Known about the structure:
Layout: H1 3-25, H2 36-56, H3 61-77, H4 83-98, H5 104-117, E1 128-130, E2 136-138, H6 147-153, H7 159-180
Antiparallel strand pairs: 1-2
Amino acid sequence: MNQNFADELVTMMKEDQLLLQQLFYSGELPSESYHPRMKALHEQNASRLKEIIGAYGWPSISLVGVEGAKAAWLVVQHSVSDPEFMAGCVSLLEDAVAREDVAGWQLAFLQDRVRTLSGKPQYYGTQFDVDENGWPAPFPIEDSATVNERRARLGLNSIEERQEQMTEQERKRRANIEQTS
């Protein structure tokens, strides 16, 4: 295991999540456009991840440990300004999942993100938009009748449980904004 890469990736993940949380709870997210501070951080992290992948391949559990692999997934998941990079990483994750060298849910989230960004229905139901009242609602799902079976195969909870989690997050965000207003 390469501890230096693992530490670097985990630091990227922590910085990403801290900024996301700050912007979410301040009410700056969600927004109609890509927040410039988020975009800058995502592009910086993606650039570094490309260098790591170019030299060592996908940062899987055997290379960077469980947390490092999760951090690599998060960096590519948030690389929305580079859809080609994201799409290329889907096949790298498919190979790593087949080797049982990353968690299956990482593939589900990335594959769905790539599909929804390209206007296609998602396969695992991991990507959410908001409805007319601002509440979380999943983007369209291919063959939605069997989505929970696909989700379970990769270690995900049901789409109904996930939607409730997302709704609870939005309730907390709204309550926080009301308290600070």
